[in-house]
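Chain A, query sequence.
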Amino acid sequence: LPDTDFSDPGAVLQGLNRAFQMEDQNNLYFTAWYGVWDERKRELHYASAGGPPALVLLPDGSMPRLESGGTAIGIDPEAQYSSLVATIPQGSRFFLFSDGAYEFRNREGAVFGLEMFTELLRAFSASTTGPDLGSFAETLRGLSQDRRFEDDVSLVELDLA
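Chain A, predicted structure.
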């Protein structure tokens, strides 16, 4: 991505969108979440492109979503991406995940959804050591209709203590 400021998440997504247009890529597109952590200021600069939000478990137990509402990469050559900033207090945990982690049918046939995923992640994170993401993924799989995920699943946790 020539002439791209990698410290500016919106500029990175803009550069990716210019470089990867679906008409040139067998009609494929992708979603992304990009962030830059400034440990000194405890600021997270971020931008998103059509994917799920990141979640931050704050020390008070709240779990805000970090999303900026951008379009998936490759769909619209004129798409604009905004960089936002969140101040993250010490003792926070940061989670990134793919939509496959919550877009599956539960045993009743309904889509599990982001709200249920967030509440379950908050419950798993209640321990002082944080969730075991392998166990968390197995719990999610057990809640699914066929005991399998319908899409790829990625789960990442960063301890921002």
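The longest strand covers residues 32-38. The mean pLDDT is 93.
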